[in-house]
Design a protein that fits this description.
The protein has 430 residues and is an all-alpha fold. The protein has a single domain, classed as Up-down Bundle (Growth Hormone, Chain: A), CATH 1.20.1250.20. It is 84% helix and 0% strand. The chain has 15 helices and no strands.
Length: 430
């Protein structure tokens, strides 16, 4: 008789699974896999198109992205306030699928793609944060605080797995099939998430109590409820500041990388393929951490320790860039930062929302994940551009500024970690 462990035994070795949790956990993993595979097909294409109009135009694109978020978030707030989650969740994804098909038609029809490329850059920058925010709001609504500590890192592993597949498809097929045609593959994967979403909604409804069914009514409130919830809560405002600083660190590294890539890879297809290979490396390493270590470390060390670790590492990375300001050093720090953010920081950040009410899970979280994140992009990109022009700072000088942001980021992480650990466990999911 074979002694090879079965799927349930293997899953239990990766994450502490209680009875009845295996199927929804697997569904959430695959859902996240498909979502990120769809996005990571688009990510290298977006980054390549971002420099089509010149690196100097990136700060303008960040501001247009922020304006796009300012339009999208109140619309989502209005829809979520008037429809149940079983309605507004799938239709949010259908909207983006239709958009992808429209972009494929646009790029196929027009030879001059400068302006379509800029519009696409803005759209993808809105799309990726929006659909991911909706996904994790849904997860925080399905699972409670204790479950999230055990399971969210594993669910995040679905993102890394999908990112590996998506970026791999772009890296190996962008030049042969044509990067524009990969939009169709992305839209198909995004459409497949709807089946997993429906399963999880049915699972949740099957476990719901009478009180849960009342709570599953439309959220109500006005379209701008997300920002008012954040401003009224020190905890939610702290999360907003954490997100702002996290995005600021990302933007500093992204802009410096974009400038060096434009010099080293002037051909757009070569640049897209190189970025795809970086994505594959990052997500391969992140996946190992997510599946083998992060969930157990979070259960043992607590959320605060996990949230502080990455800002401290990033601050050290900026100091390394200041000492050795080369493309190789920048890419190395960029990879380490992304691995830490995907494997450790983001799952910990999503856990913070398991102790707030449903309106905060969807509306405040959506505001923080989209408007605050892209607002940081826009503000920090403009500061970066002003500093570079006025002070004529090179990569080393910019790295010192990035290190300061990372230190402030670590301080906010300590505050949030302590606040979360003082909260009482959330009720069981329903």
């Amino acid at each position: 008789m074979s002694t090879r462990p079965g799927p349930a035994t293997l899953l239990d070795r990766l994450v502490f699974v209680h009875p009845g949790e295996g199927a929804p956990l697997a569904a959430a993993f695959v859902y996240n896999f498909l979502l990120f595979a769809a996005y990571y097909i688009l990510r290298p294409l977006r980054d390549s198109m971002g420099v089509t109009g010149g690196v100097h135009a990136l700060d303008d694109l960040f501001w247009f992205t922020f304006l796009g978020m300012l339009l999208a978030v109140p619309l989502f707030g209005w829809i979520s306030g008037r429809f149940r989650r079983a309605v507004f969740l799938p239709w949010t994804y259908v909207f983006f699928i239709v958009n992808l098909l429209a972009f494929w038609a646009m790029f196929t029809a027009f030879a001059d793609d400068t302006w379509p490329a800029r519009v696409f850059f803005v759209w993808v920058s809105v799309f990726n944060l929006f659909v991911v925010s909706v996904f994790w709001s849904f997860m925080a609504d399905l699972f409670n605080k204790e479950q999230a500590g055990r399971m969210f890192a594993f669910i995040a592993g679905g993102a890394s797995t999908g990112a590996i597949i998506g970026s791999g498809l772009t890296a190996f097929f962008a030049e042969t099939l044509g990067d524009v045609n990969l939009l169709l593959v992305s839209s198909g994967m995004l459409g497949a998430t709807l089946f997993l979403m429906r399963y999880l909604l049915r699972w949740s409804a099957g476990r719901a109590t009478a009180g849960d069914r009342v709570a599953d009514r439309p959220l109500g409130g006005n379209p701008f409820a997300g920002i008012t919830l954040v401003l009224r809560s020190g905890y939610l405002a702290g999360i907003a500041l954490f997100v702002f600083l996290m995005a600021g660190v990302t933007t500093f590294l992204y802009l410096q990388q974009a400038a060096l890539l434009a010099t080293h890879f002037p051909d757009g297809s070569e640049r897209t393929a190189f970025l795809g290979r970086i994505d594959t490396l990052v997500n391969g390493i992140a996946l190992l951490f997510q599946l083998l270590a992060v969930g157990r470390l979070t259960a043992r060390l607590g959320v605060m320790a996990m949230m502080v670790a990455v800002p401290v590492i990033v601050a050290a990375g900026f100091l390394l860039i200041a000492a050795s300001p080369t493309l190789a050093t920048l890419v190395a720090v960029y990879v380490v930062r992304r691995v830490g953010q995907y494997a450790v920081t983001r799952p910990s950040l999503h856990i913070l929302y398991t102790t707030v009410d449903r309106a905060a899970k969807y509306k405040a979280k959506n505001f923080n994940d989209t408007v605050v994140y892209r607002g940081s992009d826009a503000v920090v990109a403009s500061i970066h551009e002003a500093v570079v022009r006025s002070l004529a700072l090179g990569l080393a000088g910019i790295a010192w500024l990035g290190a300061g942001i990372a230190v402030a980021w670590a301080g906010v992480a300590i505050f949030l970690g302590r606040a979360h650990e003082r909260t009482v466990p959330a009720r069981p999911p329903g």
